[in-house]
# Entry
Amino acid sequence: MKKIILVFMALGMLFGSASGQVVSPKCKTCGKTIKECQYKGKHPDGSAPAQRGPRQGQRQVSSETTLQVNGNTGDFSIHCSYSEGCTFKFDVATNAPDYTITSGGQSWISFVEKEKESFHVLVEPNRLTRMRTANFVVQAGKKRINVKLTQAGQTIQHATYLLLDGSPDDQELRLRGADGGHATYAVSTDTADFIITGVPSWVTISNKTMTSFTVNVAPNTTSSERNDYFVVKAGSKTVKVVVRQPRRARSAAEGGIRIDAGIGMLVSTPHVSFKGPDVGGVINYGVNNLTSAGTKPDYSSGIGFEFHGNVSIPIVGGFGLSTGLAFSFHHFSNKFRSSDWSFTTDNWSHRYSVEQSSTEKFSFTYMDIPALATYSFDVAPSQTLTFKGGLVFGVGLSGKTKMSSQIEYTYNDGSGNYLGTTYKSSVSQTVNLFTGEYSYAQRYTSGSSETYDGGSTTTSPFNRFNLQLRLGADYAIGRFLFGVTYNIGLSNIANEQYFESVNNQIGGFFHAGDPQFVSSTDPLEKYKHRNSSLLLSVGYIF
# Structure
């Protein structure tokens, strides 16, 4: 009986347990039971397991944000193998309230249909023949997953047509002026892409897309028209674009007759040569040559100035001719010193020992007429460089030399013994170099109280005609002109009759008790005198 009761109790418990069984709900996102769900507390369907407080003595564990994109918890890549475009769906699983999508700025991908559990990416057609890459980031809380998306390029096709502005023929871009400009061409072709080759250095291409490009032409600062071309190529099809640009507007010197005027600083340098005894004074030859104890001339350059006006006439290209009229004022000097030379008087009964220091200052005024060939070219807008070279014909309007000497005489007997008399004097003399007129004056400061003044005319020391070779350059900035010129003396301006005859040469000085010039007994042979000059000038173009 006891055994029968136990059997019935076991059967009752079995049937009672079967009739009271409860089925655990499942998560709609991952398909697992709520107990086994990976979200651990927040479910997409809004259901959540009952929260149980921690047991006594047990710590509370905080929940951590989770994120999955297409089942990936880390960075991954995806590839679009179609150049015509793709559409991707990305599944998102996260326990965060929401997620964000951040693009790298690529214009050829877009994000649509963003929902709690997914979003879509649209990839536009790739018109290039190369693969391209884009990146975007999916983020939930602090969790970030970077997605790298690549897309294949188009396969190179054989072009059946290439049109520029709707035409398959070669094009011509003709600019109206030298200031430059730009033009945009529409491109139509059935290939994946087109290229532009052979672009001239003064042309640039910008804003190139699959359907157009822009041609930019720089200003023409040269004196010649520019004419060149580039080629647009798509597959086997080509179209040539010829670019023509006129030259800059002609400058005053190049485009028509140019008239300018200016002033300059003139640095004059004499060049002399001669045969015979050394002399210090050239015009006052007798000063240093009584006993052949003189010194060589010691010329120094001097500063003068020039006023000029020029007319420039273009011929062809940058070549032209230039002439004008100039008045030039030249200055230079000659210094010389002599000592320990002597001469005798009174039938050799007395002897004078002489010490002398002298200076000759020369000044010339010329009227010059240049005949020059020129070549001009622009180096920048409104800036022209001109080279010039040719001859300058000069006529001397005036020429003078002023000589001043400090002379000391020691009076000795015929044996050279000092007789106790010393004469000190200052001598000045002016000579017209083109007429031969001269004047003189002597004043004693010791040994004598006499004074001497006088003048006369002899053969002119110099000729008026002066031929020079001119080389130089001008730089024009707007209407202002800056020039540098070097003139090389070609003609010998010395008068042969004056220098090779002692009767024509002016004596150097006269001494106490004998008021007449002392002259040399030896002529100055083959004296040659040429003047060269450097001119730095500024001017204005009218």
